[in-house]
Write the structure tokens for this entry.
Amino acid sequence: MRRSDHLALLYCFLTCLFPGLCLFSRIFDYTLRVNNGIFFVILTTLCCYGAGGLLLKQEEVTLKKLPAVLLSICPFLNQISVLFILFYTDDLIAVLLQASWLFITIPLVVRTAYSTGLKIAFFVLAGLLAIPILLMLPWVGFGSRTVLAAEVSPDSIYAAEVIDSNEGALGGATQLLVYRNDKSFSIGSFSFRKSQKEVYSGPWGEFESLSWIDGETLSLNGRTFDIAAYYFEGSSEKERILRYVKKHESLLLSCMEQNDFSPIEKDALLREIQIRDNYIDFSCGGTGFGPETSYWGFYYSEKYNMTAVFGPLPAGQLFQKSGRGFLWKESWYDPKGDNIFYVEQIVDHFYYYEMSF
């Protein structure tokens, strides 16, 4: 492969670099944070103009098919990169530097494009992408995001961060973000945060304190959050439910006593809370449609009613012991029946259930 081909591939790589990092973060559940993005943009811009200048300096540029096609899509890739930079940095200079790549990309493509049709297509697409870029430029640098506090859990598995998002006349918010510290990493100007989640968002300026109570319990302004409830890797739905009830038994009892479920309404594990005549159903999930449906969750029964959420079993039909709980299948008594109910006591008055129809 000739020098001109190598320069064309290098130029395309530089154009793809930032969009590629963004795509990587999305695919593998990372949140990309750009720190001092201006340095990255300055460095890549110098490399871009260097490679592009050397390529234009060649007396005769005849590229092989692959480098020529890749170079032809660079105007489009450059505009995509500018759009991503707009979302990831508030630095107007970084945005303008990235956008300036078109000044050298256009003559490069005009001179070396493999196909006139390909050339026209990507110039048109790049032109269309310029519209949202121009519309968003006035908003670059509008508002501010300030890190008010950052704490790593005692076992270093999780990290929490409180962000003050000030949007001027539009208001703002106080955000509590948590991510997997043990699986996150940094490369140069970029930080990749594994499984970052917004645990809480409240009024702007309400921050008072942030601390870890233990490895999985976080306190913000005196309000506690069970962080493990937001991370489901490595455990089944049933295991998460049993663990949740055992850890939050006193909180659940307090909510029922005061008839106020607001402290747990935002828990990621819970889908719906229904107060019935003789039990309280904490639904955690369901699948299927029509006659083929399954549901699971847990419920509270003051009178230790094992079938409260399902209803009485048909006369003469009984549970059978299954693991730590009890199982009933309609097919045991009726070959055509397909209803199934499983129940398992978690702690006093609380039962885990699965049922399908």
